[in-house]
Each structure stands twice: as structure tokens, then as C-alpha cells.
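RECORD TYPE: protein structure
NAME: Phosphoglycolate phosphatase
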Amino acid sequence: MALQDIQLIAFDLDGTLLDSVPDLAVAADQAVQSLGFDPVTEEEVRDWVGNGADLLIGRALSRSMTVDESLDAELWKEARIRFDDFYHQGGHQLSHLYPNVVETLDTLHQAGFKMAIVTNKPSKFVPEILTQHDIADFFVDVIGGDSFPLRKPDPMALNFLLEKHHINASQMLMVGDSKNDILAAKNTGCYSFGLTYGYNHGEPISDSNPDFVADNIDQLLAVVGMAK
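PREDICTED:
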């Protein structure tokens, strides 16, 4: 089934367009070790990302998907500050776009689709990453995890896009790799496109019942009525 009326496509960033875990893992490891905690691995961080940097660091300090209830709030805050510093200092040198991302975005852009980034990543890091990978010009809106009081899976950011661009939910498609993306789409009433790679806390994206499931982002073209 192809969608004929899509006007705006919202993309998650980490795990959808960009494999950023190598850089996130290094920064998280440096942050927790600088405070005397045990090291964390890239494999662990892959399961912990997706809900914003605060939760990532809470999980790294707790070494668990569930943050330790006894974790000191001030320590957590300091760890987050250090994480941001280490992440910035790393320059995102280990991150890379997934296959066919640039080609797919360019094809959609040339066809006249409006595109936006809706990520739970801290806003201050997003523009530089998009520019670094030469994809910034594809997007009319860039929404970070702290752009609004609530982040995905809350529909606040997606509802903002509907209102700004004067479209209804059936004219927007959310593309992501995690249940937060799919739930945000469902909570907004728009269509969802789930990618099987990326970061979803070790769960298959199909468990969240997106409208479409794909192994490669270029399969998005057929969904919006375009040939590859």
C-alpha cells in the first residue's frame, strides 16, 4: 500500500538516519568513569539510548534500563554535564549515516516533500551533526528533545508540525527506529514507518505495530508512492 497524500515526513535522528551510538558510548563511559563508576560498553549503550540524554546517563550510572531509585540527584546532574562535555569534545567523529540515507532524503526533497527532524537528542547537538553529514538543508524544521516540555512518545512535537504546516494527521508520516517514534505517531494519529535496525531497547520494532516496517530506509520511497 502506498500513501498518496503525505505532505510532511518527520524523521527521528539517532538509530534512524545516524548511527551515533559509538560516540554516545564513549562519552557515557568517560562521564561515569570520571565519577568513579564502572565502565560501560557500546553494546550496553545501544540498549539504553532513545529516551534522551538524562535517562541514558541515569541508566549508565545504574548499569540498567531501570534507573536506580537511590541514585543521588546531584550526582546524576553532574554526570549529565560531564557527558555533554565529553560528547561535544568527541566531535561526533565515530558516528555515520546509515546506507541510502542521503540518496533517499535527496529524492524526497527533489520531489517536494517537506521534511523535519524530531529527535529526543538534546537540541544543541543536532544542527552541527546535520551539517557535519551534509543533510541539514533537507529539513524545514529541527526539533530536539528539549524543544518542548514533553518529548516522544508524547505527540507535542508532531502536533506542533501539524499546526505549523496546516496539515492534518493523515498527511504526515513519522519515520523512526524505536517504539517512542511509533507511539508518538499513534498518539498524533499520523502514519508510522518503523526501521528494523537502530535502537529499540532490544525489542523488534514490529512489536510496536507501525503501519510500515522496513529493513532499509530507501523502502520509504515506495511507501510515499515513488519508485526507487
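COMMENT: The radius of gyration is 17 Å.
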